[in-house]
## 1
Amino acid sequence: MSSQEKETSNSLYRQWQILSRLTTGKWMGTRELQETLQREGIEISLRTIQRDLNQISQRFPIESNKTVPQGWRWRSDAPIQSLPHMTSSQAVTFMMVEEHLKHLLPPSLIEEMNPWFELAKRSLSTQNNVRQWINRVRIVPASQPLIPPVVDKHAQQAIYEGLLQDKQIECIYRARGPESEERGYTLNPLALVQKGSIIYLICTRHDKSEVQTFALHRFKSAKVLEQRALHPVDFDIDAYIESGALGFRVDFNKPTELVQLELFMNKADALYFSESQLSKDQSITQVSDDLFKVVANVPFTSQLVWWLRSFGKKIIRIEPLDVFNAVHEIEN
């Protein structure tokens, strides 16, 4: 390869790296580009970056903000095909993300993702086999499907942005119940969890350290504050979920506790738990010819009680007594 060919190859690689770092919406300065390229092992001067950008802008839909120092970005009307074509598997993934996760993503991220969703649709529209695959895949709830409650969009956006930026939110919230009054709170957002058709904000109040859940559809208004959110030192979202907090307490005056659940049932019904386990420590043992015992340590929550109730007479016996009584109290 001649020196001229080598220089052309280096320039193309450098310009491609610059082009692939630009985004829509956010301006990126030449200094930031220089630092990014240096981390990739590309030593380049600010003057060379500016010259490259000017050359790129003649053939690609990028724009500058004409300030000093100058910032660059993709134009809002830039077709996303300007970057590498999306593969079939990537397109399918984006379609599933849009369908099932868009209501959990912050609105600002959804706006940034919209060009990718559109590209996925266009990619699939020309591939009959992939489009057929999409039409053959569905996600259905394991329990009775419910129509999601209406969530105030402005409140939702503020809550998501507060969580994204790790800042406190000031809100008006109305608890469940016809006689509940609207009350103002300052909250420290910690996490979002979707349970069935309802999305919950996991948070602490500014005047209390206890972790609480607030249903998004009960927020009447919300706005992001400048103050940073305060986090409990030992908070872990996965540990919080595993504790059964979102299963809701059987007794709200007591914390959720683990119970060693024992379910007695016939072999055919017990086999269900060999595929979908109640807990990691679950065990299944044979008690008699057609009687099996499933043992697992699980949080004792109202969700557990209602779930056990759904089995009806398939469960021959339930232990411990507290769980048995809770199930039969609902029956009666």
Note: The first helix runs from residue 3 to 21.
## 2
Amino acid sequence: MSLALAEPAASTSIALDVETVSHRYDVDGKDLQVLDDVSLSIAPGEFVALLGPSGCGKSTLLRLAAGLETPTTGSVREDGRPIAAPDPDRILVFQDPTLFPWRTVRGNIAIGLEARGLIREREYRIDEVLKLVKLEGFSDFYPHQLSGGMAQRAALARALVNDPKLLLLDEPFGKLDSLTRLRMQNELLDLWKSAGFTALLVTHDVEEALLLADRVIVLSDRPASIVAEVRVDQSHPRRRDDADLIALRRSLLEKLGISHDV
């Protein structure tokens, strides 16, 4: 089945530049630093994965890129312009689908278009993204009637209907069963290839990072700094039993402080 997008935008992706970013929070009057002098450049259309210990600041980096927060020091830029606020060009997809239970799948997908006043002229995009994520027969279903994988497809469709140029993914498959997770990984890869957006994925799954990303960035414990960067020079689809990927997996686990294979 072809996943080609109809009428793609002239520019389908953006460059993301994180420049000497440090970030901290005030927690009950105490200073909590979560990022420490992080610099990272992502090319338009590139797929980058972030690995690191739980709570190290990976999700904070996504929130900064989405414009939901402003870095304490340093800057985050899209195509050279400072990111100062959320924008439909930059969409954040969470681990939980966060669908509105009182809205159907179609109604949930329509939210972004409605908020932007584009529902009349771009309602056709809802049908297109429903087909893209293979939910065209479930548009009138409510969230409680969906499986976990279907709900996450609906969340992806809600993001894609806005034709984002940067898709920020915060462990989007973390709560799915293993088989559904494998299917969703393949479907995300197909969507990325088809739509051409830039992708930044937070994951704790080393294998997932290696199967999907062009580059894998390893972050330290909090406050996070970049401790390693691994480029994956293999075309898709990639095989989990590929000897080179197995070697890269072992290397990444070591960089994460796990000296034995798991």
Note: The chain has a mean pLDDT of 90.
## 3
Amino acid sequence: MTQSLSDKRPGWHWTDYWRSGREEVMTVNTAAGPVTFETRNIWSDWFAAFDTGAVLLDLATGSGQVAGYAAATAEGQGKAFEVVGVDYAEVRPLAGCTLLGGVALEKLPFPASHFDGASSQFGIEYADSRLALAEVSRVLKPGGQALFLVHHADSAITRQTAAQISAYDRVMANGAAVRQARRAFSAHRKGLPSASVQAAEQVFAEAVRRAQDRLEPDPAFDPVRYLVGYLGDLADRVASYEPVSALARIDGFETGNSAWRHRQLCQTRAALDGTGLDGFVQRADRCGLVLADRSEIADQRGDLITWRLTFRKA
């Protein structure tokens, strides 16, 4: 049985994402297909400056991509790092690193002055930055370094994400198509009279048609276009699906949609404009994290992607 949304553990939206096998990379959709923002060199160059024996903390580690870069850098240079990654979501094991799930950045389970360096790739900005930055400062040794790649409010990624959310909400607005899908298959499962079943199927098909009419050729509609196509297939072949199985698939469909939309909204809300970044830096400074560098980074096509921030623990 599919677990209801209300019964899921906190952070389940991200747990499902990492369990799907995704890595923590950012992509921008283009006419030629998605373009990945590659961060390996950024992290490899930064980790290379640490001495052997360094103890490193990766915040909001997700798949452990950045933690893995740290371990690979150490191996490539003949060094030994202790690499620990933490995430609010559940995480999978990663060779050469210790990854801990169920950890809030606002309350790190480590002693003071424990780490030589802290990293975050599109993660710390999702937390309560006042509390999270205080925790980073607490667990860093004096002179410890931190590098954060932070979502930029004007980046190609944030603009793309906002456009996709808008398109999704416009097409799937009140969830009518999903509700009517459930009613149509429930009518079959309950063995209602033929007239009632046909009426439910017709209402479902009409709800899908209305959703299809709201689709536009803009690429921002591509994610929701796929979802409407899935519902359209169900509407066209209701009788060919076993009702209980179809209802379970609809539950999974709705759960996946909820997780996707939640992650997209989190990303747009976490992204920082110039003023937001000023506040972030000021909060860091009050915690004893002194800004060493602040810059904007673009991808290989010249599209703005992220803020790059480096700090030193006073």
Note: The mean pLDDT is 91.
## 4
Amino acid sequence: MSDDEKNALFSAPSAIELDKIYNGWKNRDLTPTDYNTIQENEILNGSFKLKMISFKVNGIKEYGALLIPKTDSLIPVRMYIGGFGLNVTTNSVNLILDNSSKSNPFILAIPALRGQSLEVKINGTLYTTPNSAGDHCDAFDGATDDVLAYLNLIQQTETLADVNRTSVRGGSRGCTVALLAGIRDKRIKRVVGVAGPTNMLELTSANENDPTYQCQFLSSYKNNQTGLEATRNRMIASSPLYFADHLPLTQLHMGLQDKIVPISQGYDLQQKIIDTGRSSLFQLFTYDKTHTDIATNNLDLSERIETFLEAL
């Protein structure tokens, strides 16, 4: 790739480009169809119901899990978004439920996302789904479509779900998608991100030969399957930094020793939010941790997140 080509591909986005992407999001049809419950189980003597479900959005068949407490009241929705690995097509979640889990009830929603399946282990029992259809490497903008379509489905099918009190939490790729979902949908009132990229345009430019970035953004361009404008749009639309003025209340947790997502990604988002006069809506917490151990034995992180989400 020539220097001129790189400059054209990775230069900072213009206001026109940003407006086009933001307005384009509003016009996407994320209506879920073909809803089906593929498995339903009672958990903890009927205190919770686990539903493994399928649906379609834009013809793509996808899967998800819903953990619903027994209650007669409207309750908030917490969405949990998994990370990304080039050769990892399963999102794995391990949950421990006991009687204390029944206080401050909420619906936990875990989408598999396109190209991935779910493995949800609850108190030692494993529940799984098949692989969702779609491109595994459409891991940010497309995955955000999946999250919002899933929230639309929850609004349509779960009568106890107060979707206007939705929070979204994710780590690594899931952090980025959580931020993008909060930017795009006003039903989402709180976002928690852990160790996630905020500027995929910048990171792709710095890692253009890395197989993960190739898969997510550059392979189709280099193979002449996608043009320069569409490739730029995909990277920009995967970068919450450029749309930070639309974020709701947000917590971001970053590792100072993270070599995969540098701490500068967190600082840049913080500065952008300060520049837009929205600093009261944003908290950045840093830890002397790496990308892989940021949540390990980190009581401060878990307590900050739970206090933040419980207030919704």
Note: The chain has a mean pLDDT of 96.
